[in-house]
Amino acid sequence: MRTSILTFILIVAFSNANAQDGKFSKLPGVTVKDLKGNTINSETFNNDGKPIIISFWATWCKPCITELNAIRDMYPDWVDDTGVKVIAISIDDARNAARVRPFALGQGWEFEIYIDENSDLRRAMNVNNPPHTFILNGDLEIVWQHNGYVPGDEDVLIEIVERLVRGESID
Q1: What pLDDT, in 10s, does the model give residues 98-156?
Q2: Residue of 151, 152, 150, 132 whose CA lies nearest to 142
Q3: What is the C-alpha separation between 128 and 33, in angstroms, rounded?
Q4: What is the dihedral of CA 18, 169, 79, 40, to 10 degrees?
Q5: What are the residues whose beta carbons fall under 8 Å from the beta carbon of 166, sequence distance 6 or more?
Q6: How far is 117 from 14, CA to CA, in rounded Å?
Q7: Which pLDDT score, from 0 to 100, does residue 24 have?
Q8: Contacts from 105-112 at CB under 8 Å and sequence distance 24+?
Q9: For residue 158, pLDDT beyond 80
Q10: What is the pTM of this model?
């Protein structure tokens, strides 16, 4: 019995939560707002067939800000080398949504920023705690995800993106 439980836990822990019968989950179609207040459907996110990094963050989340600032510092090189696009999705609620635009602009982030003030995309993608980062392939399929941030995670992100661009497996 004990061996069966341990085996089950290991299978769950090491299985790819995104893969289903060899296919990856698609980015769900949910509405978010851009920094000007326009409603955008997440299905319209596009990077001309190149990878996209989606990072869920909040203005009150220090690890989120640290992660996005680390990405900011390398982002121009990442774009030149791989064509990757970063999309930062704020999960600040409606009461704090007005703080997102000035906060993000003050950080000097050059990536696309959206606000998920009703947590619709957050729920659809099963994001519990920020930062929660996803990598999508050129077909908007979720191929990798990670929760939390420690310095150096950005190196893992770009390594996975580079492997995708080269057509290599990320397993």
Answers
A1: 999 999 999 999 999 999 999 999 999 999 999 999 999 999 999 999 999 999 999 99
A2: 132
A3: 20
A4: -20
A5: none
A6: 32
A7: 65
A8: 105/35, 107/65, 107/68, 107/69, 107/72, 108/72, 109/68, 109/72, 110/72, 110/75, 110/76, 111/71, 111/72, 111/75, 111/85, 111/86, 111/87, 112/34, 112/45, 112/85, 112/86, 112/87, 112/88
A9: yes
A10: 0.84
Residue listed under structure tokens 């009150």: 60
The larger pLDDT score, comparing residue 8 to residue 115, is at 115
Rounded Cα distance, 110 and 101, in Å? 12
Joined together, the tokens standing for residue 154 give 């950005």
Structure token digits, residue 81 = 């080398």
- Kindly indicate the confidence band of residue 18, based on its pLDDT and cuts at 50, 70 and 90: very low
Question: What is the CATH code for 20-165?
Answer: 3.40.30.10
Residues 169, 137: contact at Cβ < 8 Å?
A: no
